[in-house]
Amino acid sequence: MKVDAQELPKSGVFKGIVNGDARVRSGSNLEVKGVINGDLYIEAESKVLVSGIVEGRVINDSSEVELTGIIGG
Fold first, then answer.
1. Nearest 5°: CA angle at 27, between 30 and 1?
2. Which residues span the domain enclosing 30?
3. Is residue 59 assigned to a domain?
4. Domain count, the chain
5. Is position 43 within any domain?
């Protein structure tokens, strides 16, 4: 996983903007409604719903991920 990516909250809903890469920590339960202007790294054992925009790639390390938003610019 990319170490210098901005860490998102472990639970709840993220509605902000990340100018660069973002990371969801292992064991998180999160909905991403915001905008990620880079790649989104999702660590193992997480449950993530991406309903916002990820300009780059979604990189999933064996987690439960649902993509309903816009991926890739």
1. 90
2. 6-67
3. yes
4. 1
5. yes
Give the residues of the chain that fall short of pLDDT 70: 1-3, 73
Q: Are 55 and 70 a contacting pair, CB within 8 Å?
A: no
pLDDT of residue 57: 96
Apex 72 CA angle, 14 and 1, nearest 5: 65
Residue 36 structure tokens:
């990620």
Q: How far apart are CA 59 and CA 24, in angstroms?
A: 10
Query: Which pTM value belongs to this model?
Result: 0.93
Closest CA to 63 of 47, 49, 39, 52: 47
Amino acid occupying residue 55: E
- Sequence length of the chain is 73
Please say whether the beta carbons of 52 and 30 come within 8 A: no
